[in-house]
Amino acid sequence: MKKAVVTLSAILVLSTLLIAQTPTLNALPNTVYVGAEGKFETAPDTALIQFNISAQADSAKDAYDQASKQAEATRQVLRANGIDPKSAEIGFFAVNPQYDWKNPKHKVIGYQVTTSVSLKLKDFSKIGPVTGQLADASVGESQTLSYKLESTEEAKSKAVADAYKRARASAQSLANASGRTLGELTYASVDTSENIRVIAPLQHRAMAMGTTAAPAPTAEFSPQNVTVTAHVNAMFLLK
What we know:
This protein is an alpha+beta fold. The protein is 32% helix and 38% strand. A five-stranded antiparallel β-sheet has the order 3-4-2-5-7.
């Protein structure tokens, strides 16, 4: 019996917390409350290339030196394409020992140095040359390309306008069906979000000697549009 009382008390407390965390809007007489989704599609303005610089050797120093050479090769590729190396951002840097797990003592047999690199490009024509030259330099064989919209204010405004238009149309339909006239807006809330288009990792392999270099995987294709969505909740008076 005591267990049942305790369980019931816990349920009541949890319910009270959930209610406290959920904002409520009191229904007012002669009003209609509606919600609607809106969206706006536009071309992305930024390409994001992400890859790792990774090296493994018997000693931490040798692994570090190999990673440093790859980092320098990365800087040379960027300079060759008119890109300031400072525009590349380091996400993390790690030095990890490698163990022989078959050995009962788990002996250290080497070290791996890894760092992540992110590069934003506004000029999409540089994507192919940069990714290809990094692969030729044995840097970042696994690369991820994604597109995003950094200048979002205009797109958000248009998405909100589309959502409001849909919400008002729904309210207008309800008012007409009830024989009333739709009045002014008395309350509104807005929430916006942006999707990010991610392309599968670009796997590069060295071309056979004497063959013509193939075009980049992204050559002549257009990046997929970015969709900015908005949700509008609105309350209107009914006359």
